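hi support,

uploading two proteins for the ticket. first:
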Amino acid sequence: MTVSSIDNQLGLGLLRQPRSVFFGPGQRRQIPFIVEPLGTSVLICTDERMATTAEFREVVQSLESRALTVHVFSSVEPDLPRSNVLDLQEQFASAGIEVIVGLGGGSCLDMAKVAGLLLSRGGDVRDYYGENLVEGPGLPVVTVPTTGGTGAEVSCIAVVFDADKGMKIGVASAYLEPVAAVVDPELTLSCPPGLTAATGADALSHLIETFTDRSKNPSAEELAAHLYVGKNVLTDIYCRHGLALLATSLERIVADPSDLQARSDTMLAAFCGGMALNTAGTAGIHAIQSPIGNLTHTPHGFGVGALLPYLMRYNLPVRQAEFAEIGRILGVATDSQTELEQAQAAIVRVEQILAALGVPLNLRELGLKPEDFEFVADQALLASRLTANNPRPLTKEDIVAILERGYADDRSWWRI
């Protein structure tokens, strides 16, 4: 039976993950050895920038050296529009693809997941919008992230922007889980500063949201039916480690973009965030960012970063202990302080990290307008799989109040 509490009364732990994960500088050299047993005809999904790099050519040549046939779709667009997915389907539906490699940022990895699904099982990506609507496995997918942020290399969801519907929609199924992930921090060294900042803020938001999520205490039937079952003891392990890494790594990258150890720490933290959100799920921040991003055309990472100060404050009254622990992990809180003081110190420290990255800390800088607040709130509430994870319930009035504070740069402390 389900226990009604935002805390983990069941002591539940649950992870979903690839069969193999290779982490560390230079591990991209494992790609041909991973791919070869999976098939001889390979499709690489990447974007225009990555396709011009020496690292990309190295990967292609390594695959061809194993007598594999390599096809390339190098037109993946940011925020993965459905039209982009249709283009790939039309180009490769009859190409006899046997294995997919996603090489790039989150959109490239999400494209690889939906390509593996659609080139195997057919249909329109719209047929699979939602949770657990995929009836069986697609083509095997190997993910190779080139940014330190999204965690998409280990998640079993792909997010698509459907222009006709005017919103991002997830295809969520355990069948989308990659068979292998290759996480090579050297691939992030060429990442532009703005993208580094946006993806770093995204990683930070994943770890904070999943660590402060609602624990859903699901029944056996609910565990079988749903992917996102809330904060649990195993996701907490990844959150703690990821937050400890980001306590210094993001600011070290700002100081020296060539710092490979800082890049490695950030990429490992992003991986931890992906491992956590894969069963805990993100929450209110991501629900609210999506319509803001659609309206303002601002990077996802900047949107979630700008919302963090206000959603953290909103959730603080019901997640004080978790925020206090974050304060201790980030090194800004001690047991000599009250729990509330520790929690507030954590939130201030997160804002300092975001500011160092150059992330806007209010919604006005994103270009959001007050006349759009109610529309954003209505759209956010449609993302019920996300709002259901928020530890403090969200109504339309609550979301509008959050947006008003975010627009006014009002970082006073909420009271219930």
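and the second one:
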Amino acid sequence: MSAEPAARCLDLSRLVSRLGQGPWTGVDRVEAAYLARLMREPVPLWSLVRMRLGYALLAPEGTHELAGRLFGGPWGHADLAARLTPGLSAEAARAEADLRRLARRVLPRPGLARSLRKHLPAGTSYVNVGHSNLTARVLTAWESVPDARISAMIHDTIPLDLPEAQRDGSPERFAAMLSRVGSAADLAIYNSAATRDDAERHFAKAGRVPPGLVAHLGVPRPEVSRAMPPLPPDLAERPFFLCLGTIEPRKNHALLLDVWESLPSPRPILAIAGRRGWKNADVFARLDRAGADILELPGLPDSAVTWLMAHARALLFPSRAEGFGLPALEAAALGTPVIASELPVFRELLGDYPSYLPLTGPERWAAEVSKVTMSGHRRDPIVPPSWQEHFNAVLSMM
């Protein structure tokens, strides 16, 4: 157990960068959960945000005001500097203007280390749980703060384990980030033992394995709206299955399209809740040609996604790799059946709850979909991991 730090500084670069880009992802929710919890701790909470031309360092009072905006409060007006910064969206311009108004200091990039030493107490704990802003400049700056500790969460190593399914350049950037974390971190936090195994394998190749801790993420039971949100009416009248996530190669939507092509009529509906991603031109073309049994539903609010999850015959999760698999846990917490690929992280977190199927062919998936369509049986809900359990494990270490 580590001594309580003089202060904590949570990096909020990811949440601020996501403004205007739709509902929060799983990683976004983790950063938000840390913000909500660390503000309640007796240790003063500062925050650091990467801006277009530097960094905003927010003292505890500024961090609390920023949290109010991130959790739904109104943003202010863009100032002149934001309006003159090229490439900023309207949301980003308002955010950068507010950051300048709320910040204890706006720090130029070359002077980051000096500014952190000047404004933060010795023994500050820097916490980064968003895979963002883990640059050489930032980590080197924190290493220069007397008695500072650096804690970083690793959510997965998918860019290195499945490079062919990533955006161009993503594996190289991720490898460089992981190497920097391995060299600098005093603590690596892992969302699962499966992630820890993968990450420590890559850390060892890079030269140093930092001390690590496995702490499953909290999964609050989703609250289901009594009324059906604005969704296609067929979803209330016909059996449907849900696939949740960005339409990208790792999520393996191609398998589900093969399954639906092989099902006899009348078919259930396949509801795909997720935006189109990258390197998936063949799948996009097939979706463009798909009939009424396949619905693309991008950009849904959380309330609509939860309603779909609660009313689906099953959640379909044919993913080729996952670090945690939040949708599967949320579905299981609602008693919705889960049909999933055989991944170590699913066994770790869900045990025998899902129906596990191989990814080598659609026939068994089609047979399982047909069986579940006919039965319509629900499952006894599981009790998922809680944020209280997570922070009980983590807070004493950072």
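thanks. also noticed: The mean pLDDT is 95.
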